[in-house]
Amino acid sequence: MKLFRGFRKKYFSLAAILVCSAGVSLEAENISFEAKDYSVSQNFADEKEEELDTIQVIADINRKKSYEQSSSRTLKQKSHTVDSIDVITSDEIELKGFGSIIEALNSAAGVSSAVNGGYGQSGSLYLRGFDAKHTLVLIDGVRVNDVSGLSGAQIELIDLYDIDRIEIAKGAQSGVWGSDASGGVINIITKRKKQGFDSDVSAEFGSNSWQKYAGSFGYANELFDISLSLLSMQTNGISAAAPRRGESGYAKRDLGWEKDGFSNTILHLKGGVNISHQDRLEFFMRNAKAKNHFDGGAGVDANDYDGFYEYFNTIRTSLYSLGYIGSYEKHKIDIKVNHSSFKRSFYNGYIGKTYEAYISDELSYIDDSSFLAGFGYLKDEVKLSAGEKFQNDSQDDKYIFAVNSNKLGDFIVSQSLRFDIRDTFKDKLTFKIGAKYNFYKDFFVSASYKTGFLAPNLYQQNYGATDKLKAEESSGYELSVGNQNFALTYFDQQIKDAINYGGAWPLDYYYNINGKSSYKGIEASLRQNFFELFLGEVSYTYLDAKDADSNRLARRPQNKFTGSLSWFASNSLHMNLKGSYTGSRYDTNGVQTGKYFLADYSANYDFNKHLSIYLRVHNIFDRYYQEVDGYGTLGRSFYVGFRNGF
Fold it and tell me: What's the rounded Cα separation, in Å, for the pair 127 and 85?
């Protein structure tokens, strides 16, 4: 069968890996699986069991947290929300051996990607087919979308180390988060240290001279908590460019093309002071410096220096936040001041900055009901673009928002409303409404309708944009049915007045496309525990994404399957085998880049409660594929590492 062509003549690869792992396994007899309780407070560690329900953990590994904050700005039990939210926890990241954040996100239904090469290369992440520019990415509440570019957040530069959970809210979220969230929100929350001294170190080595070192150190007591995380990684990489389909050398990996390396260093500091039981000050700082080497374009190899141009990019990202959280009777006050700074070296440099300040008050007015209201100020600046300064280098957005949530027995309703007052384009009113009904045990049916917008950014405004350029408008609905382990969702979304690029330099420009782009599809996911030894998960996405002329949008697979099987072989050893099938997908030039199957394997062995070692094997069957025509991908790759906590 063509569907599983990657398996042919390569069964020995998987068999050898499994035999090696089984060789270090303890007997899987008399295994006891303990169900532990976890709960998390929005404010203080000593309130853990007061606000949220607890959940069960299988073998202390796969923890599905029962809360999220990506769709409402405030921490809510997932059972109290009506949106379709996926949560990827730190335990899942460890269990499934995800090597990158894009790999982790791709495991969720409705998410796909197309990357221009190997490690650290730029690319696009699609939520239900929406471009990356339509997705707001947050780290601990601070915006990561680079305002000096066109592609949203450079999510490929975010490492998985020290991440507590990743929340994926799909569909328009502008009714809460504004312009950048017209297609969804990816909310990344980093870990918070436990009581007392808490630290860990890790190291990882692998193919393509991969080296990664990380450490986290923290202390917490009743008065304050502080943590510092450090990470350094580097790799020689692979050639970012590769022969296009139909060109000589296509599907061959060792062509002698120059390798394009990648390095990344991250310093992350966060903490807080408990002024009283009701008042808390919090701070957050994250500085990252990455360097990725790239090539001359699709199918075009290039040296780092060609006598005229440098084919590498140094990227600096700085995030800062200072906030106050207070609880007074039925009120929860949240005040934040955030700042994001982005610098890129290529094409003579890009510099972008974002400032945001907001205040909100959440009122619990009856049992299981709350009303959140707030206002804020957001400012974008582009100080340098391709070495030049913009004539109009900043834009302001003043906004007010409100979110109401009611749980009346088994019936849940939610509404949000936001009004943006912009200095460069028309003011916008966006909203979302939804309802959920739990009709049998934990089975539910839900429906929601959402609107959003994406305002032209400073780059588009300054490069040939006409005075008639308008903000994009999005709207759509979703219908879901499911329970804790199963979900089936149908979604139907549209974009009106999509912003497009036309012409050719120096007469290039941006304009609005007449008509509506359409994004329809189905998402399905299922997870099940077998015999208290295995945990299986599968997901399926069908996407019908078309532009205003009913042409299929490029680089989005029409069908996508993902699956994972975890084996808790003993109290100390657990293993995971995961696979994904990418269906028909066409690049911008019409070339087929889909129809392939990939499989990965990982194993983790705990020597004691502090020390563990792990193995990851990416692309077990060495399947050749391209996500973007003319750009390379990783073949079979091996990684081994250890973690040690203190």
Answer: 12
Cα–Cα–Cα angle for 424, 427, 433, rounded to 5 degrees: 140
Distance (Å, whole) CA 403 – CA 372: 5
d(CA 159, CA 156): 8
Instruction: Give me the domain span that covers residue 399.
Output: 2-645
List, in sequence order, every beta strand (DSSP E) within 93-190: 111-115, 123-127, 135-139, 142-143, 163-170, 184-190
Reported as a single tens digit per residue, the pLDDT across 539-548 is 999 999 999 9
**Which of 272, 297, 234 lies closest to 45 in space, CA to CA?**
272
pLDDT beneath 70: ranges in the chain: 1-66, 464-467
What CATH number does the domain containing 345 carry?
2.40.170.20
pLDDT per residue as tens digits for the range 274-328: 999 899 999 999 999 999 999 999 999 999 887 778 899 999 999 999 999 999 9
Instruction: Determine if the peptide bond prior to 243 is cis (ω within 30°).
Output: no
Locate tokens 């530069």: which residue?
A: 157
Note whether 230 and 141 are within 8 A (CB).
no
How far from 429 is each of 262, 367, 401, CA to CA, in Å?
42, 29, 10
How many distinct structural domains can be found in the chain?
Answer: 1
Calculated CA dihedral for residues 570, 575, 576, 577, nearest 10 degrees? -120
HSE, CB side, 13 Å, CA atoms: give it for residue 463. 24
The helix (H) or strand (E) run that includes residue 18 is: helix 11-23
Residue 15 sits at φ, ψ, to 5 deg, of -60, -45
204, β-bridge pairs: 212, 641
Rounded distance between C-alpha atoms, residue 72 and residue 57, angstroms: 26
Q: Output the 3-class SS for 193-222.
A: CCCEEEEEEEEEEECCCEEEEEEEEEEECC
Look up tokens 């060789």; give the residue.
23
